[in-house]
Design brief:
By secondary structure, the chain is of the alpha/beta class. The chain has 6 helices and 6 strands; from the N terminus they run βαβαβαβαβαβα. The chain is about 45% helix and about 15% strand. The protein has a 6-stranded parallel beta sheet, sandwiched between helices. Helix 4 crosses helix 5. The longest helix has 24 residues.
């Protein structure tokens, strides 16, 4: 398996990350996926998402939300959480990740990416050299093409976990 598919970390939720620790390590920008990373697919921003972005701003982070979705869905979410965004990002192409870093005035050495899909989110972040965090999807109900990708992701995660055990 190609290491570009392996996240730097695999965690339960974007809401359980110790963002203050990442800030102390020198990270200053965070690029997020939206659907199934912060809210269930297609859902509006909820109180938990709004609170997270308030906290991130208080810590000193800049954030950009990166989505392959259309602008109306992305804008509605981002307006509510108060974050910049790039829609129709064509993940995993690295160009949108680079645009996000330009907007935040960060580089790959001090930017995190957080998303729920290996073949789009993690692959794109890794191709850009950004620290990638894969989180478990929030909601199991997904579009058919994503459901099919999840089966392939299970194979990648099997080898990822195996490598993690070997490295310990």
């Amino acid at each position: 398996m190609g290491n570009f598919l392996y996240p730097d970390e695999y965690l339960q939720s974007a809401y359980q990350i110790d963002y203050a620790a990442f800030y102390q390590k020198g990270f200053r920008g965070i690029i997020f996926d939206i659907d199934n990373t912060l809210v269930p697919h297609g859902a509006p921003a909820d109180k938990r998402a709004v609170s997270l972005f308030v906290r991130l701003r208080e810590l000193g982070f800049s954030c950009v939300l990166l989505s392959n979705n259309k602008e109306p869905r992305v804008k509605l979410f981002c307006d509510k959480v108060g974050a910049d965004y790039i829609f129709k990002a064509n993940k995993p192409k690295p160009s949108a990740y680079r645009r996000a870093m330009e907007r935040m005035h960060t580089g790959r050495e001090n930017t995190l990416f957080i998303g729920d899909q290996i073949f789009t989110d993690v692959a794109g972040a890794n191709l850009c050299g950004i620290y990638s965090i894969l989180v478990k999807p929030i909601h199991p109900k997904e579009e058919i093409q994503i459901v099919l990708k999840r089966y392939l992701e299970k194979i990648v995660l099997y080898f990822y976990r195996k490598k993690q055990k070997e490295d310990v």
